[in-house]
Write a structure and sequence with these properties.
The structure is a homodimer of 213-residue chains. Chain A is α/β, with parallel strands linked by helices and 213 residues long. Chain A is 51% helix and 10% strand. In chain A, β4, α9 (137-148) and β5 (156-159) form a beta-alpha-beta unit.
């Protein structure tokens, strides 16, 4: 054990271990960083097989983030995990409407989830929006409905809810469809995974432009 | 898919699926709820084998929480995931010192991690304290040092950092020792897992005393 190792070195060593244990597997450009960061966040190599990407989604999402896209999460936990210092350098912000009283009141009145209502609030945001959904299948379902009705046109939907009920199906809605996506197929995911994917996108821009993390 | 299912029913169904897939496995009283909630949070059944508990730790920790123990986390993400409404009903609070400027300055000056310094700040807290560590091995190592030197006497250390460097070893420090612990043996864990364990403890009190979640 080496408790005096610097955080940057720990991360570098961790990624080297992940690369080694992936045993020479290769992934499309841009996707590899994301897959490895999710494994780094979870120590779960299932994500090497679970994560699916729509065509060119990494390139388009990093371009939008570079220009200050807004990120919407479905939990304050995912919001807390996003590197807002880096996001802020590009002029972007991250928001979550889940804890707002209005959202809770409206959800109760209409008999739907707060997550679904919070997505409707997010639909009113102007400019490019990336949705990072790590918890609520109902958020994903509502996003899919609104996109189908042309009420929203997201740059990217990160769809990585975790769980046992409605989760798998809500993610399958997106796969192969027109809405740009990064989906963790199956039951696995979480707010930490959603945040890790956002951060991996941000760090790709950093790496490309020669910033120090 | 049934997107109109109520959150309470989704949780109930999810736990039923988890119980079924655990195939009749039994766990000691109090530990079962925690193990199942961690699986619910991660969809990862490895935790049925990974989680290890010191003797009587669940009983002692729930008793302390019932009396308003303070929870200290090593990330704002874990802090965000803890159910502060329930915690607050018992008079408890959750804190994280990681984002404080003083902590960052001191860590830089001393050449140690912010996580280690943040544990020293937490050591000054009065009353019963539960540490919920989901990210930093250096936080666990510092807690172990301070407990050995009798500078702290925690009610419970939840030791569930995730990762590939120093993580496994930092957790093994506690197993079989005198400091009350709940540890996720091996590489797996995370801020979401730390929060889930805290919430499982809180919900046990709720269930025992007949509160509605």
């Amino acid at each position: 054990m080496n408790p005096t190792m610097k955080p940057a070195d720990i991360e570098k060593n961790s990624f080297a271990i992940i690369t080694k244990e992936l045993g020479g597997r290769t992934f499309p450009e841009g996707q590899e960083d994301i897959i490895k960061r999710v494994i780094h966040t979870s120590a779960d190599f299932d994500y090497a097989d679970n994560l699916v990407f729509s065509p060119d989604v990494v390139q388009k999402a990093t371009e939008a983030l570079r220009q200050g896209a807004t990120i919407v999460t479905d939990t304050n936990m995912a919001l807390a995990g996003i590197n807002k210092t880096v996001l802020g350098k590009f002029g972007g912000q991250a928001v979550c409407f889940m804890a707002e009283k209005q959202v809770a009141d409206e959800a109760k009145k209409r008999g739907i989830t707060r997550a679904a209502v919070s997505m409707e609030y997010a639909a009113k945001l102007e400019g490019a929006v990336i949705f990072a959904i790590g918890n609520a299948p109902t958020a994903l379902i509502r996003l899919h409905e609104m996109a189908a009705a042309r009420e929203i046109s997201p740059v990217l939907v990160i769809g990585v809810p975790v769980g046992f009920v409605n989760v798998v199906e809500s993610k399958e809605l997106f796969i192969g469809g027109d809405i740009p996506y990064i989906i963790a197929r199956g039951r696995k995911g979480g707010s930490n995974i959603a945040a890790a994917i956002v951060n991996a996108l941000l760090y790709q821009i950093y790496a490309r432009e020669g910033f120090e993390k």
